[in-house]
Design a protein that fits this description.
The chain is α+β, with helices and mostly antiparallel strands. It has 6 helices and 5 strands.
């Protein structure tokens, strides 16, 4: 049965597939972020890591970092519906594995007015040593330094502590009101 489907679109899908294969993407999602989706993603990844017979320590670390990344997407996404035509809860999430490292990529829209505060938290986290991160985490937790959405950067601090890596992030300006925030996290056995 022949359809009226444009074959050039199939080539685009194949290109995406090839890029995902080259980057060893285990799971990717683009769309609205809901609590049910987060539960499903975590269950899928837990099953994948069991099937891959991952070391228990690495499996736990990846799972914990994954939880933090997904919670950040879900809880700290800006409401951009009044300033943009984009879907307010829409985001992208990918996890891959390359040369023994898990790579977690997230992206979501953010109001430009909130970038400087987030950038400040990220830069502060990136400037600290492992021991300083531990102290900073306790300070934020004990002083109740919470943002309007709660958290005060605890998730970002926790990700940096668990991975032992700097937070790789970027802001791509979409227009004068909204940007797209990306966070790329590397999780390895060491640290």
């Amino acid at each position: 049965m022949q359809s009226n489907f444009d074959v050039s679109n199939m080539l685009d899908v194949f290109e995406i597939y090839e890029k995902m294969e080259q980057n060893n993407i285990l799971l990717s999602f683009k769309g609205e972020i809901t609590s049910d989706l987060l539960t499903s993603i975590l269950q899928i990844m837990e099953n994948k890591m069991v099937n891959m017979q991952e070391e228990p320590k690495l499996k736990k670390k990846v799972y914990n970092v994954l939880v933090e990344c997904l919670q950040n997407l879900y809880h700290h996404m800006d409401d951009i519906s009044e300033v943009s035509h984009e879907n307010n809860r829409s985001a992208i999430f990918m996890i891959g594995k390359n040369q023994g490292k898990y790579l977690i990529y997230t992206g979501n829209y953010i109001l430009n007015e909130n970038i400087s505060r987030l950038k400040s938290v990220l830069d502060e986290v990136n400037s600290l040593s492992k021991e300083e991160l531990k102290d900073y985490y306790k300070k934020v937790l004990n002083n109740g330094e919470m943002s309007m959405k709660g958290g005060g950067g605890l998730g970002m601090i926790d990700i940096a502590r668990k991975t032992g890596e700097k937070l790789d992030y970027d802001f791509l300006e979409i227009d004068n009101k909204v940007s797209f925030f990306t966070l790329n996290i590397k999780v390895t056995q060491q640290n």
